[in-house]
Amino acid sequence: MSSVGKVELSAMGKFYGTVEALRNIELTIKAGEYCCLLGPSGCGKSTAVRMISGHEEVSSGDILLDGRNITDAPPAKRKTALMFQNYALFPHLSCVDNVAFSLKIAGESKTSRRSQAMELLELVHMADYAEALPDQLSGGQQQRVALARALITKPSVILLDEPLSALDPFLRVQMRKELRNIQKELDMTFIHVTHSQEEAFALADKVVVMSKGTIQQVGTPRQIFETPNTPFVASFIGGHNLFSANFEALPKEEKYMVNLESATTCRCGALPHLKASGTYGFSVRADRIRFGVKGDADADMVVPATVTLAEYQGGHVIVHCKSSAGEIIQINIPDYKYFALQPDPGHEVLLGWDCRDMNIFPHT
To answer: Phi first, then psi: what are they for 168, rounded to 5°?
Structure first.
């Protein structure tokens, strides 16, 4: 792991007039970590990286880079580089001159700056296009040049604001592989803004889920997906169904009676965040819900439901069902199992899951 590039945000906040864009952001990103800020449009993730880069003023709190307070430092003195969403390449300059531009401003000789620029174009597989102009390149090629330009000042942190959003789906997958490989090869800190859960999970060591200017959850992709800690996180990352049930403590059995309106009553053992009797919200992953036309006797909870829609996704089928209580429940079923049953819309089915697959939300 790199020894430089540790970013610390302490009580960081941002106001635009009376509008609060970020509230009391506390976050530490380790040196050499690939961190994705994930959330819907308007949640404050782009504002956060622009504040780290110095392109937005900080209303409150502090930003530290390797222990150095850079809150009020100008962008050029921060040892960060921001890769803009639209790449912002100079249209009249060749690729090599675009990459070398900041070194030209710094007064380096033409031979030195072009040599360094060519090394970085090699790194991003664009050396063959060194003399091409930006409008002669595809979107993916322009992105590679923009990344090389960001790297040439030898920053401690690379900031990427929705860098893949303008690319087609196939190229997006290819480019995220390249971004990850380059980040690992350089052992640098990358902070990447995205609204795509798939993109964040594929790239990140650390995922920061944001909503309405606040951090909802921080964790590895696996932690975020397996144990979302709020209904918002579970809903935004997808693949989860949301429920609410009454849990009644049975002290003699060291278990809880679970009463869900649409399901059979069952008993469950201790679960994280389940501390006493009461009503708790919880989520169940769509791939953990079993599906059958005759029921599943092995399931702890069974919900009668009606199929409303099926979406073929290749290796699996997403089946949408509606319970008798009106809950919309999504199930991911392997394609072979779905086509063996082929439940049409209107078909009555039984859905089941085990108590251990209930992710209880903490009471707040």
So the answer is: -70, 160
* b (16+ CB within 10 A) / e for 154-181: ebbbbbbbbbbeebeeebbeebbebbbe
Sign of dihedral through CA atoms 49, 151, 128, 136? Answer: positive
Tokens 């707040």 correspond to: 364
One-letter amino acid for residue 229 of the chain = N
pLDDT tier at 145 (50, 70, 90 boundaries)?
A: very high
Taking alpha carbons only, the member of 57, 59, 53 closest to residue 15 is: 59
Nearest to 295 by CA among 348, 359, 241: 348
* CATH code, residues 7-231: 3.40.50.300
Architecture of domain 239-360: Beta Barrel (2.40)
Please enumerate in sequence order all residues whose Cβ is within 8 A of that of 323, keeping only pairs 6 or more positions apart, or say none.
Answer: 262, 263, 303, 304, 305, 329, 351
- At 172, is the secondary structure helix, strand, or coil? helix
Q: What is the 3-state secondary structure (H, E, C) of 256-275?
A: EEEECCCCCCEEECCCCCCC
- Write the pLDDT tens digit of every residue in 97-109: 999 999 999 899 9
Alpha helices in 34-126 (DSSP H): 45-53, 95-105, 110-123
Inter-residue contact 115 to 149 (CB < 8 Å) = no
Cα(164)–Cα(171) distance, integer angstroms: 9
**Coil vs helix vs strand at 186:** helix
Alpha helix positions (H), the chain: 45-53, 95-105, 110-123, 139-151, 169-186, 197-203, 221-226, 231-237, 335-341
Domain residue spans of the chain: 7-231, 239-360
Q: What is the pLDDT of residues 40-83, one digit of tens each?
A: 999 999 999 999 999 999 999 999 999 999 999 999 899 999 98
